[in-house]
From TrEMBL:
Pfam families associated with the record: p450 (PF00067)
Name of protein: Cytochrome P450 6PZ26
Residue positions binding heme: 467
Domain of life per record: Eukaryota
Keyword NADP assigned: no
Amino acid sequence: MDYQISSMLLLTCVILYLYRIWKNAYLFFEKLGIPYLKPNFLFGNMTDAILLRKSLVDVNLDLYRKLEPYKFAGIFNSMKATVMIRDPELLKHVLVKDFAYFSDRGINVDEKVDPLGYHLFTMKGDEWKNLRVKLTSTFSSGKMKMMFSLVKDCGENFSEVIDQISANETFDMKDLSSRYTTDTIASCAFGLESKTLNNPKSEFKSMVRKLLQFRIFMLVRVLWTNMPMKLIKFFNMTFFDSKAQKFLGDIVHKTIKYREQNNVTRNDFLDLLIALKNNTLMQKFQDTGDHEDIQTFLEQVGGKCLKSDIEMTNNLLAAQCILFFAAGYEAASTTLGFTLLELALNPHIQNKVRQEILDVLSTNDGQLTYDLMKQMTYTDMVISESLRKYPTSAILFRRTCQNYKIPGSDVIIPAETPILIPVYGIHLDEKYYDNPQEFRPERFTEQEKAKRSKYTYLPFGEGPRNCLAKRFGKMQVKLGLIYALKDFSYQVSPKMKFPLTFKRNFGLLTVDGIWLQRQKL
Ligand code: HEM
């Protein structure tokens, strides 16, 4: 009986405590004079996402639309008051001009509890700046040329695997694309021939999948910006799935050891990272393109040089390799899959891209080179349009590092406030793209691009914290597309259901399957 009474008392205290927090959170925007959407107790404006009734992507799209015509407004990520920035001009301030106020994403990771979760995506302040400068040089345009032949080999294999599918057989292009991007990143970041294209049941593939598999902890961490370190330590929460992280971390450690002991070079990211660790990057890989990228970055973060340095330990190298996988494989494979889906739905565009590919290849006996790939400009427009309609990172996060006065208003957002950037909402806004559901690559001619603000198109983010590997990601998708289209045409299978239902995960825009059929040409 006593036990029951104390349990009831404890529960009442917890509810009262949560109610008090919620009441304060509720008043947050009232006090600041910011318009906001009325939240529900505990779930805020995220009820449908938390109860897994809708994807986080769709929930945020609804919120973006409900908040028309405000330039910025308040929403509640569960109980956390978050400012959504809707206006492209304000986004220019948040992402670039006033970057010093918004330099991190507010994701807390304890380096001791989770050394492999301590990477560029989660790092903050000077440590992030130092590492970003170092890694910038590994993704320069010169380095992409170096990596081209490794990705091209995977592209050729992708085409061979597509060739093995029978005519009119329904297959999942999403699965095939993710096996292709797994192989490209395994080759470029880990120095491995993972061969998941040939072996869909490989352990490597299942571990990579596990890395980003939906976990309720991940959703909580995305919604609960600034989660207290004590809680992270108490639950021993790792950023990615701990088993997958350990599996991939062990591979990197072993490969580094092998290469250092046997003096092996393979011209991939791991070589570049090892050279960074040993301070031999400039001797080994001379590349003038690096300097320009680093200079631009330093100017944007407001300093010509950095205050301190960061030690490149083997754990730090392994953490970056794992991040390359997590950040790259899903984003690139989803983009490739959606692009092929749209091409199957729009045969006239499919024919036009294929014609460009064949015309360019015919100038060199069908042999693809890096420079020839660069000449395929219509293909670039098709990829850009695909990333507009399906930006895999549908929402982006920042956090105010200090109090910030919103330009053109009297509102001051306090330090430590989460900021949400509704990329998907902006990409589907009729104000910026007429008939936004129509797939139209011509939106990306130089002339059309010049008519819009740069901040209405954010598939790779913008400013110093944008995608580090934008060039590599685009190259993966482009080579995949070239090898998928050169010898085959695609139709949508009756198995594909419309409208698309996005996965209920922690904010990535993706689907469970992209069902197509192919014909050999
Ligand atoms: C089509 C493919 C890709 C897309 C659409 C994409 C998109 C993005 C986006 C939207 C962000 C967040 C930017 C922001 O907050 O402003 C990001 C960050 C990042 N991406 Fe990518 N990405 C792609 C491929 C890759 C690949 C292949 C890699 C690595 C090999 C990679 C590495 C990273 C890293 C390290 C960051 C964190 C940067 C930082 O915080 O400094 N991405 N990416």
